[in-house]
Amino acid sequence: MTSITQDMRFRLAVIKYADKYGVSKAAARYKTNRQYIYRWKRRYDGTWDSLRDRSRRPHHHPNQHTEVEIKLINNIRRRNPNDGLVIFWVKLRQHGYKRSITGLYRFLCKQNLMAVKPKNPKYKPKPYEQMSYPGQRIQIDVKFVPSSCLVNEAKGQKFYQYTAIDEYSRWRYVEAFKEHSTYSSMQFLEHLVKAFPMPIECIQTDNGQEFTKRLSPGNKVKTPTIFEVRLKQLGIRHKLIRPFTPRHNGKVERSHRKDNERFYATHTFYSFEDFSKQLTTYNKRDYNRFPMRPLGWKSPQTVLYDFVKYGVTYV
């Protein structure tokens, strides 16, 4: 419902007073001029709408678009409905259009001729593949230790955290290294195989140089890395995630985020040996024994132990 303004009430009061006592007395009473009263008396037809302010917009403008320009704009827009403002303006200029881009923008807005943007295709993720038993697939990734955690002798050095997470039980194995390379990855793999109580069928990693040379520009003959060779010797399948898609390695990425919040934010390391010792203690005490919601509030260590010993399934 359209509101009735204070100005409209004032004009109605002036008109009624003028009808009863005359225009001159109404002008003196309401402190206005007679022309004002005569004008609103002519407009008033008994409705509130007749007392509203009319648009002061001019009916014509000396610089408005000509019929030829309007026809050109309509023709180009009909052929290019999805072009943005700049591209559309350039195409008009190529056909002899002389006006500025701001003038074109105002005209398109008034005529409702702005570009019709097609909807972006929605990303439809594949349904998550649930693991059926421990060792079916293990995610591996490398985390750079924050430099702010390194003090005294360790200051200025670079340490790395290798992380492996079993997708079924969320059991995690971590190890500290002074470098991230294919040799370090191979060493970590051998230690992981010894530490995990069940056979490992598949290892999933990203496309980093420490795991594969798949995306290396100088690797035209697809030479396997030491890590890949060792996987083949152990009979373990190597699965590479899609490039630049870390969410496909989501479990290990999430664990690294938790490490920042629960470990690296409150710890400092004086040497590599100190870092390695603290990391091992944290993983055994604060991660593998920490209850998790996806596991029915069981800890990864409990889930893995129960499956190995009793065949109990929680997930």
TrEMBL record:
Matching Gene3D superfamilies: Ribonuclease H-like superfamily/Ribonuclease H
Highest taxon in the source lineage: Bacteria
UniProt domain Integrase catalytic: residue ranges: 130-308
Record protein name field: IS481 family transposase
Species per Swiss-Prot/TrEMBL record: Defluviitalea saccharophila
